[in-house]
Amino acid sequence: MSPSDLAIRPATVSDAGLAAELIYLTMGIEADWLFGQVPGISTHTVLSSLFQRSNNRVTHSFASIAALNGQDVGLLLAYPGCLLKRLDWLTGLHLLGILGLSATLRVVRIQSAYQDLIEAEADEFYISNIAVFPRFQGQGVGKALMAYAEQLARENNLQKCSLIVTYGHEPARRLYAQIGYQVVQTFQIEHPYVAEGSGGYDRMVKFLV
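^ thats the sequence. predicted structure below, dont judge the formating
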């Protein structure tokens, strides 16, 4: 892949369907566990609805789309870590409008399984989701999106990027290690369905030069 083959652009509301597919790739059964709370409302519908709205964890405002030879193939969702707590609350308010009170309360109870998980510190740029459609993997798109995240971090005057990776996702872990990310914390999650049964996460951080 040459640099001219790949373009990265800010996401728009019209990317909602594409983004829902790519975000689901990064979450899998965990997304169903969190958002598939109401019969007749699919996980993709919830993700798409959140993406079209502002001020939540998966809004288009924090997303970038990678296109290879003019075809959209990947997504980056990232933002300053100092926004995380506020975005968690705002996401809950959006879910209240999408799923209703009972389902939203179930999501809140489910989230208690993550109470000890630290996703990012306030002085880090947090890479929440990064995904490339499987048929386009291995062509440098993921690395390009990671480099773009570092660019965004610098534009936000932050000197560290961070992410979490689930146990068992060795290809992702190797990619992150190759480009300078180091494991700084490990978290066990005590629920059989969290993170596709992996049981926990590693938090990885890269200091930017």
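Residues 192-197 have pLDDT under 50 and may be disordered.
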